[in-house]
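Hi again,

Forgot to attach this to my earlier email, sorry! This is the prediction with iron/sulfur cluster bound. I've pasted everything inline since the attachment limit keeps bouncing my files.
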Amino acid sequence: MIKKNLIHFTKLELEEELIKLGEKPFRAKQIWNWIYARGAKSFEEMTNISKETRATLDQNFSLTRPEISKDLISFDGTRKWLTRFSDGREVETVFIPEENRGTLCISSQVGCTLSCKFCHTGTQTLVRNLEFHEIVGQVLVAKDLIEDWKSPIRKLTNIVYMGMGEPFFNYENVAKSVKILNDAEGLGFSSRRITISTSGLVPEILRCADELKTNLAISLHATNDILRTDIMAINKRYPLKDLLLACKIYNQKNSYEKITFEYVMLKGKNDHEEHAQELIALIKKFNLNVKINLIPFNPWNGCEYDRTADTQIHKFQKILKDANLISPIRKTRGEDVLAACGQLKSDSKRERKTK
Ligand code: SAH
Ligand code: SF4
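Structure tokens for the complex follow:
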């Protein structure tokens, strides 16, 4: 008999499965807690459940996690894994430890439908969406690898959907995964510790404002439609006016947190002083509550862009700061293992291409 994998179920489905087996609903709660709050990988570990019940569970179910096919550690402590699913498909998952927090960057798709010109992931065509449990599976495996289930201080505190793929092209699975991450009887990440990054899908931004209430990051990268359409084709479908209006609504519905505008600095392309001014004007026009993350471009083979010089990034930043906008320059992490933003592309694919 093929055992059903309990990790592939939502909380409700898990309860239904156990009831089918003749168990009471509280048993589902107990097991949920073992899997998602304590990181149990076998029924054997669930010591508050009788031996007989554990044996029955073991006969019927498994708790199999995704596999890790590569584990790289950068000199700066950033870790990158290749997470492999049962069909052999792989995505990248990156852990970024900092002094007071640890952030996990997770993928939502294998590849990406879009091909933003500056983004390495965009060179890999979409293979498929991830299931919700494959998104959550990345978090479970990460907590195993960094040994975060029993540590008194949580090492993994924040989740960002900034890995491979466009989360809002896989909205249903992303939404289900957020719900599981949120669950106070399980992983317990509050919505404010979760950030979804999007290239700008307006209808899903609006849905997210009502349904998920996570932090929102927008890959903005340009300050007018001509420039944005040139580097991000999605701008043809959702031009700046529509995108910024959606951001305005997001702000109104989730007023406690600023939206993050991600702005990758491309030399001679979007990094002029006038662009900074244009950005300020847009933020004022739409009366947005945002902060701007200035991101040094991470170069990759075959990309037409270069990184803006630090002096120019600082000039750009000063203009924003003088307009009272919070605009940190993102530290580049994990470059030596190609784990920096926009460099995510599964090695197996890259290796195949090289051959
Ligand atoms: N598809 C979503 C989620 C992926 S996030 C989105 O586009 O928002 C990936 C983040 O890394 C985005 O902010 C993206 O703009 C940024 N990025 C992509 N390529 C990059 C590069 N070469 N250097 C720096 N940042 C990059
Ligand atoms: Fe896809 Fe985001 Fe990369 Fe664009 S920036 S290609 S949407 S992953």
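DSSP finds twelve helices and 13 strands in the chain. Residues 112, 114-116, 119, 121-122, 165-166, 199, 219 surround iron/sulfur cluster (ligand 2) (CB under 6 Å).

That should be everything now.

G.
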